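Figure 6 in text form: structure in, sequence out.
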């Protein structure tokens, strides 16, 4: 079992997890990293424009692959599987992966990020509901499609811009009186002829038999109407990806993990970094910073424990 005993177990191959792996290995910690997508949710970023060092930006996929290769180069163990359970016993952390393989570590880092939130409306489980324009937008190329994007923040606005390159028309639906996206993104939306912004409306149902063929929206007065669409893209936020944890960890009411100033959770030896923790900014660069700090504090924790 000694081959599966590590100093640090990292859950997540996104910016926080990969950066933590790089730092941990360079600090001399034997590290195993779980996740099967290089870069984590970065694959959903069509153009990463605000990460220093990339003039003109880079795609999320390119950034993720490069960071993953760099982390591998430092010598960490990457099983390329996901953990399905993380338990805590006798001061150690035990991870069980999808292949029923068990791994043990003296410290663990939750860098498992977030998963897209969905709406609780009728027919949400029907075919035709998507969460990633970069992945599924090309399905509508050349089909004169009308697509709906639900949400009003940066994610929704970026999804809308991406889909406008494939669809005949994109309708972004938001319950607020104005979009919350950054000014530069809103300006890009305003410049597009095939984007319609529908404000002060909420989606109350999806229509269709076997596949979605429309959205049912309700305005402030409660008047409902059906808008025909060929696909619906959800961009209504995220929820922390913490279902694999089998023991109590203190969280805020929204489910994000609480950490102290050294990114340790309420469980000694368990750290959290990136989008999964309670933080005020969720960006690639801040997740990377979390990962670097967490690895440093893991070493400090382990050294203090061994004294």
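Output sequence:
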């Amino acid at each position: 079992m000694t081959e599966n005993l590590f100093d640090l177990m990292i859950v997540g191959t996104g910016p926080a997890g990969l950066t933590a792996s790089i730092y941990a290995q360079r600090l001399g910690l034997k590290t195993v990293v779980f996740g099967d997508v290089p870069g984590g949710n970065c694959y959903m970023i069509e153009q990463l424009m605000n990460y220093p060092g990339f003039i003109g930006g880079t795609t999320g996929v390119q950034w993720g692959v490069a960071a993953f290769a760099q982390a591998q180069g430092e010598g960490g163990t990457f099983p390329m599987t996901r953990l399905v359970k993380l338990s805590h016993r006798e001061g150690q952390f035990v991870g069980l992966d999808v292949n029923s393989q068990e791994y043990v570590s003296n410290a663990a880092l939750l860098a498992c990020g977030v998963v897209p939130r969905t709406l609780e409306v009728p027919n949400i489980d029907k075919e035709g509901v998507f969460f990633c324009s970069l992945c599924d937008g090309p399905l509508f190329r050349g089909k004169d499609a009308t697509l709906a994007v639900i949400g009003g923040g940066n994610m929704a606005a970026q999804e809308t811009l991406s889909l406008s390159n494939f669809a005949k028309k994109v309708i972004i639906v938001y319950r607020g009186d104005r979009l919350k996206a950054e000014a530069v993104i809103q300006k890009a939306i305003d410049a597009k002829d095939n984007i319609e912004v529908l404000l002060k409306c909420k989606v109350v149902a999806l229509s269709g038999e076997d596949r979605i063929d429309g959205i049912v929206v309700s305005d402030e007065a409660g008047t409902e109407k059906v808008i025909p669409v060929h696909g619906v893209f959800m961009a209504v936020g995220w929820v922390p990806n913490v279902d694999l944890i089998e023991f109590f960890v203190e969280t805020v009411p929204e489910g994000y993990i609480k950490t102290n100033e050294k990114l340790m959770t309420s469980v000694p030896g368990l750290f959290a970094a990136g989008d999964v923790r309670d933080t005020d900014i969720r960006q690639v660069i801040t997740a990377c910073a979390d990962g670097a700090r967490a690895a440093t504090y893991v070493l400090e924790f382990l050294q203090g424990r061994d004294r």
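Caption detail: The two ends are 25 Å apart (CA to CA).
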